[in-house]
Amino acid sequence: MKLKQSINLAIQDAFKKAEINETPLAVSEATKPEFGDYQFNGAMALSKKLGKNPREIAANIIENLDHSGIIAKTEIAGPGFINIWLNPLWIAAQCDVAEQDERLNIQRKENPIKVVVDYSGPNMAKQMHVGHLRSTIIGDTLANLLTFLGDEVIRQNHIGDWGTQFGMLIAYLEEQDEDGSVSLKDLEQFYKDAKGRFDANADFADKAREYVVKIQSGDTHCLNLWQKFIDISLGHCEEVYEKLNVNLTRDDVRAESFYNDDLASVISDLDSKGVLQESDGAQCVFLEGDEIPVIVQKGDGGYLYATTDLAALRFRANVLGAKRISYVVDARQGGHFKQVFKVAKEAGFVPEDVKLEHIAFGTMMDKGGKPFKTRDGGTVKLIDLLDEAVVKAKAAIKDKESYSEEEVEALAKIIGIGAVKYADLAINRESNYIFNWDKMLSFDGNTSLYMQYAYARIQSIFRRFDGELRGKIIIGDALEHRLAVMLLRFEDVLERAAEDASPNQITTYLYELATLFMRFYEQNPMLKEGVEEETKMSRLLLADLTAKTIKQGLDILGIQVVNKL
Ligand code: ARG
Known about the structure:
The chain has helices at residues 3-17, 43-50, 54-63, 88-100, 130-149, 165-176, 187-200, 202-216, 220-244, 263-272, 305-319, 334-346, 382-396, 405-425, 437-440, 448-465, 478-488, 490-500, 503-523, 533-556, and strands at 28-29, 38-40, 71-77, 81-86, 114-118, 152-156, 276-279, 282-285, 294-297, 324-330, 355-361, 364-365, 433-434. The chain is of the alpha/beta class. It has four domains: 3-86, Gyrase A, domain 2; 116-156 and 254-364, Rossmann fold; 165-249, no CATH class; 413-556, Orthogonal Bundle (Isoleucyl-tRNA Synthetase, Domain 1). A four-stranded antiparallel beta sheet has the order 1-2-4-3. The protein has a four-stranded parallel beta sheet with strand order 6-5-10-11, sandwiched between helices. A three-stranded antiparallel beta sheet has the order 7-8-9. Strand 3 (71-77) and strand 4 (81-86) form a beta hairpin. The structure holds arginine. Arginine (ARG) binds at residues 118, 121, 123, 158, 160, 309, 312, 327, 329.
């Protein structure tokens, strides 16, 4: 249900009838319940144009507004605001439709587009660390959300699997892996050891350098070693994806190495478009307004991160056919993407109508406001963090006795991982954020546990009810009215969140919804003796729709629900 749009249409209709030849401003949610459900604030802006006082204009709009459909009541407030109350019969009927529908009456987009979401992108030479957490879960949420709304989403995991450091790593792998037992369980350590050997032993260093050239020229032995290294490293990442309940598979990997054969033609195409310049022996693109050029090829012939991204951009636009390309990457890479996007447009690598966006996010900080590190100052491995979340969640489960051991285990996973993801998704993605176990594993406040608890609570009502859900929703009091309107807002919220790539708009909504439901539930008994059948059914239906909405919302965030908590 596109609620806002439906209200806007009613206003547009009134404009036509009132012969106001202007497009009305869109309505907005009322800031307080006393002001109704929605507000139209467009009369003030028309005052000058129409040469009338805004209250007069508002009155004229109201006179011409249909008060028998979606809108039941209006009121002029202050200088000319129109407060709007929706029709309880109309909203009840819409809630009934949503409750009956698998998609909660949310239509798929009429004009879906192909969207590439570039996220996660770990580097194969190193352990996945907490910095990759944000990219992975924000990106996955965006991909889930756009898919749900009907776009054709192409997930791209742009892993870093190419570069000079792999010469050293595979030379070391060859030495260490004589019996094929190297697990690379600790990539960080493996890297350190390889580097140690490189610095200490000139023969090894020579070999490492030789291997770089060999991988690049397609030597089978070296490529096999390289492939083995990547497979093991990627396997570790997949363990993390699995734990995180993230929808990334090996099919979504299109690594840096994939673009390798195209890099020479990126340079020659930039040249033939006339945007290439030599500077200090390097091939560069100078962009207007930028002092520092984009280097696309070093003096020694080597290519750079930007060169690969240019190749990837044109592949995504021209081969994959994407109309929106979203890069979910750390804010600190903002300069890089700005430049790459500009060069790509200037060189005609991507058509003008393709939307390129950097979905930037801030850094994860510890309680002291410093970038998140282990006690001894190392980077925190993502896998350790997730395991710790599950251990902590287990401790938070109250009456463990009522569950089997496996149930506790499964529950702890859902709660712990959900908490980590939700805490991250619930903050404005561009801000840095403070990682706080106690806060994220709390039953109170805007947490996944609160949401999972609200969901489980509704399920427990239905366990006690144990009957057949019949009848229809009837709006009885003001709280029911607000809850119903809140439920109908879901699609608007999802659309905005997709547009802005802001998962926190979803969490904010879910939190408001769950809070409102809890109040409704306390005031409006369902299964108590003496509640009339009609009322009981209506309340149960509202509860059911609330549960389904919470579940759908969490599902988009990649967070599971439980029936009992
Ligand atoms: N591997 C990069 C990093 O860890 C992220 C890749 C992002 N995607 C891209 N197309 N550049 O910083």
